[in-house]
Amino acid sequence: MKRKSILSALCLVLWFATTANAGDDFENPPIAYYDTFSNDPVSMLWRQMQSGQVKCEPDEKGEYLGPLLKALNVPVSSQILVFSKTSLQISHISPRTPRAIYFNDSVYVGFVQGSNIMELTAIDPQLGCVFYTFEVPKGGTAEDEPDRPTVIRDRGQCLSCHATTRTERVPGVLVRSIYSDKAGRPRSGASSFVTDHRSPFVQRWGGWYVTGEHGAMRHLGNTFALDRLDPQQVDAEEGANWPKMPGFIDTKPYLRDTSDIVALMVMEHQTRVQNLITRANYETRQAVHLDQAMNKALERDSSHVSDSTKRRIASVGDELIRGLLFADEFELTSPVDGSGPYRDQFSNRGPCDSKGRSLYQLDLKQRLFRHGCSYLILSSQFDGLPEPVMQYLKSHMSAILSGSQELPSGVNLDNARREQLRQMLVELKPGWLM
């Protein structure tokens, strides 16, 4: 009995030591972020480039951006431009030379004029966001410079900003909105926001260019702080409803002359849910890992699941369900439309159910998406969630959509839309609903 008491005490010490910063402790087992081989789209492309299976050659202008996007299946129409000095290459970024971001469901590509590197972020099902640089030969073309492009995985520099409370304390991505001066620098003393589908329009896109229509709604995009004494005074009217980029921006170095509002809204939603999926993955694996250690120390059955583990899984599972179902989504008060083909290209994606419905279909009149559930429920990142949290999600989503469990707070689904969504998921994710 005395031995058991000692072991219990030791386990409690272990529990406190391990869980005090469990959400931040992803460098160690069971996550082992830096030591785990990543199987994300960028790492797979790099292996194919090294083996000669894929060649990423510069285009006729000696540029690698277009060929790289094509190799990663990232649409050019997703281009958005950010001019705030809030990223790795701040010396190259300004309102006249904004950074371009292109993205799909699992890759983000950052392009900056005058730089020989492109910033890449890719989603690995087990690690979440993994960060890379794509280093271009300084000569520009293969003829000028015998070296080939190199892909290098980040070893921690990116995580100083991309693994904080802004990203759910896991390696993640975010859309940040600031009050900028005319040089693109964040104004001292002004607020800043991490924005997603819940954010009021008036807080979104400070430090970004925004093209497209949004009616009477106003945002911080395309604006600069006007008053030295009031860092949050901007002219939102001047920045509203831009059909295209203004003439003072030379758009020739970019692949389009737009910074599409619909692409921005999709990316905001996507970054939040991807971070929530990573958080659910990490928390579950850490909790199970701790249970295994305690079960062994206390000579308990290896299948024993502690109450603390159940609570941790329920907490991250509930928050992920809320994210998937757009809890607390900002209700649009004016229709939104983009300034290029992105809206139609994205909305026409599949898979579709037997009635032609897809989770990629946009609404843009009152809400972002038509059917009220994130397309990321179909992603490989979601499918890679550990079994304990996946079972929790299956059980609770099934109960919510069947009507036997109340909707989570802030979720706006009437009975008709709830049943429609249940029917869609039965077809689009066979065998997943219970």
Structure, described:
It is a single chain. The chain is an alpha+beta fold. It has a domain at 276-428. Helices cover 31% and strands 9% of the residues. The strands form two sheets. The protein has a seven-stranded antiparallel beta sheet with strand order 6-5-4-3-2-1-9, with helices on both faces. The longest helix has 37 residues, at 261-297. It is globular. It starts with a helix and ends in a 6-residue tail after the last helix. Residues 15-23 have low confidence and may be disordered.
Shape annotation = globular
Main sheet summary: 7 strands, antiparallel
Sheet with the most strands: spatial strand order: 6-5-4-3-2-1-9
- Percent helix range: 25-40%
Mean pLDDT: 91
- Secondary structural class: alpha+beta
Q: How many H/I helices?
A: 10
Which H/E pattern describes the elements? HHHEEEEEEHEEEHHHHHH
Detail the poorly predicted runs.
15-23
Overall number of strands: 9
**N- and C-termini, Cα separation:** 44 Å
β-strand percent reads 5-15%
Radius of gyration: 23 Å
List the helices and strands and how they pair.
Layout: H1 2-19, H2 41-51, H3 65-72, E1 80-82, E2 99-103, E3 107-111, E4 117-124, E5 128-135, E6 150-153, H4 159-162, E7 176-178, E8 192-194, E9 208-209, H5 261-297, H6 307-324, H7 342-347, H8 380-383, H9 387-402, H10 415-428
Antiparallel strand pairs: 1-2, 1-9, 2-3, 3-4, 4-5, 5-6, 7-8
Helix pairs in contact: 1-5, 5-6, 6-9, 9-10
List keywords for this structure.
10 helices, 434 residues, two-stranded antiparallel ribbon, alpha+beta
